[in-house]
Specification:
The complex is a heterodimer of chains A (about 325) and B (about 240). With about 325 residues, chain A is mainly alpha-helical. Chain A contains eleven helices and four strands; from the N terminus they run H-H-H-H-E-E-E-H-H-H-H-E-H-H-H. In chain A, the strands form two sheets. A two-stranded antiparallel ribbon of chain A has the order 1-4. In chain B, strands 6-7-8-3-9-10 form a six-stranded mixed β-sheet, sandwiched between helices. In chain B, helix 3 packs parallel to helix 6. The chains are: A mainly alpha (about 325), B alpha/beta (about 240).
C-alpha cells in the first residue's frame, strides 16, 4: 500500500509536468495550427536563465521568476520572428519551421554556451522528504504537484473568466468568427504563445529541480513526452492535454514498477505500445466525442485560414 | 432615400474567388433605421457581399463608405469597432462555449458597463437565451442558435446589423419567430441589411430591396414595388430577367 501511494505521487508529479507542457503545445496548436517543436527549447532557455540568475547571486525564487519571464518573452519573440510570417502556411511548412527553430536554438546553445551540462544548485529543502505515517513523500514531487495544479487552475481561470481567455477557446474552433467579434487576431495568437512560454518556463523549473542541471538537449525529452500526451488526450482539445499528460505518466510509472528487471530496457517500447493501442481504440484521443477531426487527423487538415492580413485594393473605375 | 448621407454606401463592389467572379460591380446604400434586403437565388453573390462589407473576405470596390468614411482598408476587427456586425451564414456560434460566453465575445469591443447594458438588452429580446445562458451553445436547437447568433451580433451595439440567411434550415414555426424578432428590431430603430431566400417574408419587413442574380443587381426598389414586380422577380430567379 505504501508503495502504491508513493508511485501515485510519482505519477502525479510527472503527469503534472507533462500536462502543463502539453497544454502549452495544445494552446498554440489549437489557435495557430502549429505543433511547436521548439517548445522544448523554451524550457532550455528558462534553464539557462535560471543558471545565470543563480550565478549572479540571485535567490532561487527570483531566478525562477526571471527564468519563467524569459521563457514567456522568448515564446512571444518566436511567434513574431519565425511564425508570424508563415501564417496561413501549410501544415508541413509550419512543422518544418518549428523544427528549424528548435535545431537552430540547440546549435546556438551548444556553440554560444556549452554542450556540457551545467549544474544548477537546487535549494536543499527540495531534496528532503516528509514522512506521514509509514509513507515518505519527496518534497520536490509534492511541490511539482502543487505547482502544476496551481498553473492548471490559473490557466483555467484565464480561459473561463477573461474575455481574452474565452476568445482563445473560441479561436481554437473558429478563428475567423472570433475576429468578427471585433477581437484583434494578433492579440489572441500572441497571448497563446505567451501562455505556452509561461507554462514551458514553469515546467522547466520543475524538470530542472528534479535533475539538477541544464544542457542544450534538455527540452527534447519532455517536449516529446508532452507531444505524445497531447495526441493521446486529443489534439485540439485543451483538456485533452491535461488528461493525456496524467495518463502517460501513469503508464510510465506502472511499467517502471511492474516490468521485471530484464525487460526494463524496453520500457519505452511498452509505453508506446499502450499509446498505440489507446489511439487505435480512440483515434480522436481520450477526451472528446467521436469527432475525429479533433484527434490525430487534425494534424493533417489544412489549418488556420489565412489569418489577419487582408488586402483590399482600390478598383479603377 | 433622404438627402442626408446614407449610413452605408457601397460603390462598385466586386468579389472574386480565383478566376470566378462572385460579385460584379454591385452598388447600393442603406439609410439609418432602414431594413434593406438583398434577395436572389443561390450563388447570386449575396453572402459574398455581406462578407465583403464585414471584411471577412477580400474584395474590390470604388468605395465602401460607412458613416461617411471609407472603410476599405479597415480589417474585420476595426469594422466591428466602427459599428458593423455580421450574423453570419450558418450561424457560426461557438458550440463549445456557453450561451453567456458567446454573448460576452459579441460584446468584446465594449466596456464592462456597456456590456452589461447589452446583456440586458439581448436577454430582454431573447428570453430563451437568458434561460439557457449557462448551457453550451452547441446543445441549443437550430432556432435558438439563430437567436444566439443575432444576439451575439447585437452585443456590440452595432450601427448596422448584417443578417445572413437567418431563416435558413429552420422549421416554419421557428421562421415566424425569427421574422417577428427582426420586425421588433426594426421597431427599435436597428438598421439592418438582410440576405434571404425567403422573398415574401423578407419583403414584408424590409423597406427596400435589391435583387441579385449572377453577382449583379438585376432589380431594385421599395418593398411594395418589388412585391408587385413578382413576374420580374421570378424571371430574375430563372436567370432570364433584368
Amino acid at each position: 500500500m505504501v508503495e502504491v501511494i508513493q508511485q501515485v505521487i510519482n505519477a502525479l508529479s510527472l503527469g503534472g509536468i507533462y500536462a502543463i507542457l502539453g497544454l502549452g503545445l495544445a494552446m498554440v496548436f489549437s489557435i495557430f495550427g502549429l505543433i511547436n517543436f521548439a517548445h522544448g527549447e523554451l524550457m532550455t532557455i528558462a534553464g539557462y536563465v535560471l543558471f545565470a540568475g543563480l550565478a549572479f547571486g540571485l535567490p532561487f525564487a527570483a531566478a525562477t521568476l526571471l527564468a519563467v519571464v524569459a521563457a514567456t518573452i522568448s515564446a512571444v519573440l518566436m511567434e513574431r520572428v519565425a511564425f508570424r510570417p508563415l501564417r496561413g502556411a501549410s501544415v508541413p511548412t509550419l512543422l518544418l519551421a518549428s523544427l528549424a527553430v528548435s535545431i537552430i536554438l540547440k546549435v546556438l546553445f551548444q556553440t554560444l554556451i556549452t554542450s556540457r551540462a551545467l549544474p544548477i544548485a537546487i535549494p536543499e529543502v527540495l531534496g528532503r522528504s516528509v514522512h506521514i505515517g509509514p509513507v515518505s513523500f519527496p518534497v520536490m514531487q509534492l511541490v511539482a504537484i502543487v505547482v502544476s495544479v496551481l498553473l492548471l487552475l490559473g490557466l483555467n481561470a484565464l480561459l473561463k473568466r477573461t474575455t481574452l481567455g474565452i476568445a482563445m477557446r473560441a479561436a481554437a474552433t473558429n478563428f475567423p468568427i472570433v475576429r468578427l467579434m471585433g477581437i484583434n487576431a494578433n492579440r489572441v495568437i500572441v497571448s497563446a504563445f505567451a501562455a505556452s512560454g509561461f507554462l514551458a518556463g514553469g515546467a522547466a523549473i520543475l524538470w530542472i529541480s528534479m535533475r539538477g542541471s541544464v544542457d542544450p538537449m534538455m527540452g527534447l525529452l519532455p517536449m516529446f513526452k508532452a507531444f505524445i500526451a497531447v495526441i493521446l488526450g486529443g489534439l485540439g482539445r485543451l483538456s485533452g492535454a491535461v488528461v493525456g499528460g496524467f495518463v502517460l505518466a501513469g503508464i510510465e510509472v506502472t511499467f517502471q514498477v511492474l516490468l521485471p528487471a530484464g525487460l526494463a530496457q524496453y520500457q519505452d517500447a511498452f509505453i508506446f505500445l499502450i499509446v498505440i493501442l489507446l489511439l487505435t481504440w480512440r483515434p480522436q484521443g481520450l477526451v472528446g466525442g467521436s469527432d475525429s477531426e479533433k484527434g490525430v487527423k487534425a494534424l493533417l487538415r489544412p489549418l488556420v485560414k489565412k489569418a489577419p492580413v487582408q488586402k483590399e485594393s482600390v478598383q479603377q473605375s | 432615400m433622404t438627402s442626408e448621407e446614407p449610413l452605408l454606401a457601397v460603390e462598385n463592389l466586386a468579389v472574386k474567388y480565383g478566376p470566378i467572379a462572385a460579385v460584379k460591380d454591385i452598388s447600393f446604400e442603406i439609410g439609418r433605421g432602414e431594413i434593406v434586403a438583398l434577395l436572389g437565388p443561390n450563388g447570386a453573390g449575396k453572402t459574398s457581399t455581406l462578407n465583403a462589407i464585414s471584411g471577412l473576405i477580400e474584395s474590390q470596390a470604388t468605395s465602401i463608405r460607412f458613416q461617411g468614411v471609407d472603410i476599405r482598408r479597415d480589417r474585420v476587427e476595426a469594422r466591428v469597432r466602427k459599428g458593423i456586425a455580421l450574423s453570419p451564414e450558418g450561424r457560426q456560434i461557438f458550440g463549445e462555449l456557453t450561451v453567456a460566453e458567446n454573448l460576452r465575445l459579441g460584446g468584446a469591443t465594449r466596456s464592462r458597463s456597456e456590456r452589461e447594458e447589452s446583456y440586458a438588452n439581448v436577454y430582454e429580446l431573447f428570453p430563451i437565451l437568458w434561460e439557457r445562458k449557462e448551457q453550451y451553445a452547441g446543445t441549443l436547437s437550430g432556432g435558438q442558435q439563430q437567436q444566439l447568433a443575432i444576439g451575439r451580433a447585437l452585443m456590440s451595439a452595432p450601427q448596422v446589423l448584417l443578417l445572413d440567411e437567418p431563416s435558413l434550415g429552420l422549421a416554419p414555426r421557428i421562421v415566424d419567430v425569427i421574422f417577428d424578432l427582426i420586425a421588433l428590431l426594426r421597431e427599435r430603430g436597428v438598421t439592418i441589411l438582410i440576405v434571404e431566400q425567403n422573398v415574401s417574408r423578407t419583403l414584408e419587413i424590409a423597406d427596400r430591396g435589391y435583387v441579385l442574380e449572377g453577382g449583379k443587381v438585376v432589380l431594385s426598389g421599395n418593398s411594395e414595388e418589388l412585391q408587385s414586380a413578382d413576374a420580374d422577380l421570378i424571371g430574375a430567379y430563372l436567370g432570364i430577367g433584368g
